[in-house]
Amino acid sequence: MPAPEIGIFGGSGFYSFLDDVEEVALDTPYGPPSAPATIGEIDGTRVAFIPRHGRSHELPPHRINYRANVWAMRELGVRRLIGPCAAGALRAELEPGELVLCDQFVDRTNGRADTFYDGPETAHVSAADPYCPELRALLAGAARELGIPARDGGTVVVIQGPRFSTRAESEWFQRSGWDVVNMTAYPEGHLARELELCYVNVSMVTDHDVGVGGVESASSDTVMRVFQENLAKLRQLLFAAVPLIGPQPAEHPCATALRDATL
After folding, report:
1. Annotated catalytic, 179?
2. What is the mean pLDDT of residues 240-246?
3. Is 129 a catalytic residue?
4. In Å, how far are 169, 172, 217, 221 from 166, measured between CA atoms?
5. All structural domains of the chain
6. Dist. CA 206–CA 88, nearest whole Å
7. Beta strands of 102-238 (E only): which ranges?
8. Rounded mean pLDDT of 156-171?
9. Active-site choice (19, 207, 221, 260)
10. What's the CA angle centered on 159, arms 157 and 160, to 5 degrees?
11. Rg for the chain, CA atoms, rounded
């Protein structure tokens, strides 16, 4: 069977994607991924899916083996990745269920294995524009066609978790002008760039962070409920967008990320 060109990571509440699938158990130099990959087709396009938290959400954000997950996708043949995730809004005008297709991240995590270059080979890969602009534009266009609210561009601040933000932290994030807060968007996207894969972030707003629009506290129950209520909309977008994604061009910026990065 042909290798899948497109890979999708499932976030909180998103543990399976296609029904008629082939399951592939993989090991990597970094250990096993969060779950075996499942491979199926959408209109003739082969797609690989891995739920980043595991099949039963047994992996909290700080325990996910991001390196194994991204490496496994590349090993399967994937060159273009979509990373949906649940996110809290840092702007009152962002509505639950709205999508933000981020073009920037701010990393506030600590201790995560966030590079494939631990030595002796060293690489300093640019993160100036961390997400694939081509995939972002494609998903934004598909969302417009479907009438799905989606913002083309935004900044996600990634916190360590599993706790939510303090009031002071949330106020800081808001004053900084960032848009959404999440616990898994880093290092997944940057690891994809280190392997010269295209990666697009799709942040689904599930709630407002503490202090935003008068919200008193964040709630896991709210996050999961809103994500489940809007999962059909996310799946609709993915089913529409995936067949539009072509192969990664050889001279694409994501495909040449290592050209001047290794020492």
Report:
1. no
2. 95
3. no
4. 5, 10, 9, 18
5. 6-244 (3.40.50.1580)
6. 6
7. 104-108, 150-152, 155-159, 180-182, 198-208
8. 96
9. 207
10. 155
11. 17
